[in-house]
Amino acid sequence: MPQIPEEIIQQAIIWRREIHAHPEIGLQEFHTSAKISSLLREYDLEVHTGIAGTGVIGVLRNGEGPAIALRADIDALPIQENNVVAWYSASPGTMHACGHDGHTAILLGAARYLSQTRAFNGTVYFIFQPAEENAGGGRLMVEEGIFTRFPVSAVYALHNWPGLPVGEVAVSAGPMMASQDNFFITLTGVGCHAAMPEKGADPVLAGAHLITALQTITTRRLSPLDSAVISVTQLQAGEAINVVPQTMLLSGTLRCLSQAARARCQTLMAEYVEQLTGPFGVSGSIRWEYGYPVTVNHEQQAKILADAAHHVPGITQVHTQLSPSMAAEDFAYFLEACPGAYLWLGADGPTPGPALHNPYYDFNDQLIAPGIGLWVSLVESSLSPVSVISED
């Protein structure tokens, strides 16, 4: 494939840093959306705004071929930035700690290049999705019918990936990211004086046993071939040091790599909460806050994306068998509604940088060029121009 012009790469780096300096929380990305819309119109793309609130879709048509979609997430996180850089967040308590600024700049750079070269036959939809972090902007877009309004044969996304070196990418068929559900457990006992525990029913003791028991679900009640994580992360109980409290609250997260494991864990956790607390004279209930499904790459699209990556300058290795992550990603909703694939773009330099969601994290601008190149390679290979065969 042709080399991406240096001028486009440098401009994309400028956009990335401008977006980083003006981060916005999910469904509040008004400045970011306006910037994206303005640039897409500048490239003569058809622009649709107000999708899932602050989402933007740019449309680039060139011929009567098929259509594919490329997605970037645009929201930031409620984290106070600790970096000392010229593009430091101007919004206290908000920062691009996951690299969505870089994903957005990469997709903008690809839109600019493809609008100039048009070496493809078909339609490309550039999806700039709001609220990937917890608010489920992907689900909102799907519920609003983007794949009915903008029908495509496939949809693709990438995410920068600390832990994988620059120049390497990973895209596997099957699960790439886990499902994510939050649970809230209430244990109700009988409060009493801490010196006379026999007069009451201690929910703290019941909770301690329950926390230990929940960990046995993944090690003894699931197949070793299934992957799941149950993490209790918050505890609330008691107001006075000499009182056995009436209630205890436990909350945490469940992550799984299959819908079957997800359903099985939820059933077993409900049984444990109800049955293990009884011998302590305590009653238990569990409430679920259902989150993102498993991000599952479709086999054909994963291969198409991997093949496209092989032709990109700067990408030296394409992994197709890396283990999935137990983190979650709302691109999963897109992949439930449409064939597609999700790729990790290696982000580590010679010295690995901070992890995602860290206050010292900053997107590695070395990824801009291979990121743009990846989208260009994918579009040009998926939407190949129709060859004209002359006849004698």
From TrEMBL:
Task: Identify the CDD domains for this entry.
Answer: M20_Acy1-like
For binding Mn(2+), which residues are annotated in this chain's numbering?
A: 98, 100, 133, 159, 357
Binding note for cofactor: The Mn(2+) ion enhances activity.
Alphabetized InterPro entries for the sequence: Amidohydrolase, Bact_exopeptidase_dim_dom, Peptidase_M20, Peptidase_M20_dimer
This entry's Gene Ontology molecular function terms read: metal ion binding; N-acetyldiaminopimelate deacetylase activity
Q: List each copy of the Peptidase M20 dimerisation domain by range.
A: 184-276
Q: Cofactors per UniProt?
A: Mn(2+)
Classify the source by domain of life.
Bacteria
Q: Which UniProt keywords apply?
A: Hydrolase, Manganese, Metal-binding
Q: Which GO terms describe its biological process?
A: diaminopimelate biosynthetic process
Any Pfam family matching the protein:
Peptidase_M20
Q: Which NCBIfam families match?
A: amidohydrolases
Q: What is this protein called?
A: Hippurate hydrolase
